[in-house]
Design goal:
The chain is mainly alpha-helical and 95 residues long. Helix content is 39%, strand content 4%.
């Protein structure tokens, strides 16, 4: 898959980026290089390969799942305009 210069300009407009002529040409070349690399990686047969979280077989260090912050919900909700059952009440904005 290769992009065209018109597609680069369209993507830049959608992203609200100002890209001039030489910069658009450079961006087009870089994006096409990226798409070429993606196509190469997709061509590799990975059937039967188990997914892994790291390139080496290591054990991740885990920390204890302990509460370290005080419960300040009541203090935060004391200044809220409307709450119910510990939840903030807000106006309905979607019909």
């Amino acid at each position: 898959m290769a992009l065209t210069l018109d597609e680069v300009h369209r993507i830049a407009r959608l992203a609200r980026l100002a890209i001039d002529g030489p910069e658009a040409d450079h961006t087009l070349a870089r994006l096409n290089e990226i798409f070429s690399l993606i196509e190469q990686m997709q061509a590799v047969d990975t059937a039967g390969v188990e997914p892994m979280t790291h390139a080496e077989d290591i054990a991740l260090r885990l920390r204890a799942d302990e509460v370290t912050e005080p419960d300040l919900r009541e203090a935060y909700q004391a200044v809220a305009p409307a709450i119910a059952d510990g939840l903030y009440l807000v106006p309905k904005v979607i019909e």
